[in-house]
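User: Show me sequence and structure for the first protein, then do the same for the second.

Assistant: Starting with the first protein.
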Amino acid sequence: MTPRRFPAPWRAVELDAAFRIEDATGYPVAFVYSERNDERRAAMIDKMTYDEARRIAVNMARLPGLLGAKTEGD
């Protein structure tokens, strides 16, 4: 079996205007962008709120565990 390209566990890292989902080696797998300021977000098309982006990022970081991926010590 070939090793996973993005090893588990993944984690969500909070940035200024986004969350970065990283694999176990710290490699960025995805970014989820948001805007905390409601007035600025209203002027932008389809920008998520901070809470929406956080929920999505946390759930994306859980994917390897949900799919039965083994972590580095397993």
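Switching to the second protein now.
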Amino acid sequence: MNFTRRDFLATMVISSASAALGSRGDAQTADSNASQQHDHHHDDHAAHGHPKPTRPAVPGLPAIIGKVTGTIGVDAAYEMLKRGDNTLDAALHICKTQEDDPNDHSAGLGGLPNAQGEVQLDACCLDGPTRRGAAVAGVRGIRNASLLARVLMEQTGNSLLVGSDAESFALSHGFTKEDLSTERTRSGWELWKRIQSAPETLGSGIYDPNWPEAARKAHFLPGSQRDLDMLIHKLEPLAVQLGFGPALSWRGVYDALVPAAEPLYVSVVNQKNEMSCAATTSGLPWRLPGAVGDIPVIGAGCYLDPEIGSAGSSGNGEANVRIDGAHTIVENMRKGMSPQEAGMDALRRIAKWYKDDMTALRFVEMVYFILRKDGDYESVSLWRGDKSGHVREFTIKDAEGMRRTEECKYLFDGNPPNGVRTTADLQMSHGGNV
């Protein structure tokens, strides 16, 4: 199998870890095994899915919207809304459930660490009935960062608290400090370090407008999903050596090669049209210590106007901060746009920010979750699929009473490793797909 992009991993990592990797087998066997591993990852993704009945014609209340992997606590939160409980209680119940789950690696206990192997958490919450909100960022050792954001909101007049001072504040308000790493996340960090020990890094210049086109095309990202699967397969023995079992080796290598921030954002509205929203994340895996994304930036990763609706994000925080995405969407709805129109407009702004450069946009993922106060909703994605090739989906539970999964509307018909397939696809997608 030939690999372009300077054979980034095959030459840099596999050669330096040849003893660990052992025999690679013939191309046909490798391709078959890579396909099987991708199927295993698909099964893991599908395990979070829910039924997909037809969307009701008329919005209903109460309603909850969020990402697919953030649905463990949705049913209980829905019952809280039906009972008339506080809307922020319901939103934070979902966040806490995910933060407490060591098998979820996007937030709280078991969140993937930064470049120094430390788990740093960001979170925010917005309470529509009281029109208050707050966020925390770069917090270490405090599992329930979303609950800490609420305490900051209720006990102080501050909207953002960061780092060691946020940790001290947490301890002074009854939170307990603990090691948030797990055996799985420590192994993942070790795997990432082994890959990063190669002389050429993954590169940071993709967002530099002066970066030469030739250098962009030599970037590590494989030219197709099949090439990515093959690269992952070749590194799986190294993952096994570092403690990953057969069911987790594909996912471990994938996270090391193609890290992605997948925060949990959740928004709720009750029968009285009262709204709250919250978000929690361990951020981009292997990120620079102290770096934060869009989640603790109120207006970018999370925003709510109780008279209009709410919006939140999952994806490249830097891209979202540039357009103040969540606030932009809510303001679009204030002007009369539907949730779908409001979200697609924000995605077009991101594309325009990168001058519609499809080489650069292959490194950008963005999903918005949008809920209007009357229960109308939508989720929109920059790409139809994610980097692993799965169609982007979201979870909704509303007056129909059934938690269900729906596909996101999208701007570009493709997924980041492959890009858009043809010029016609680009023209159709960039026309809005609305």
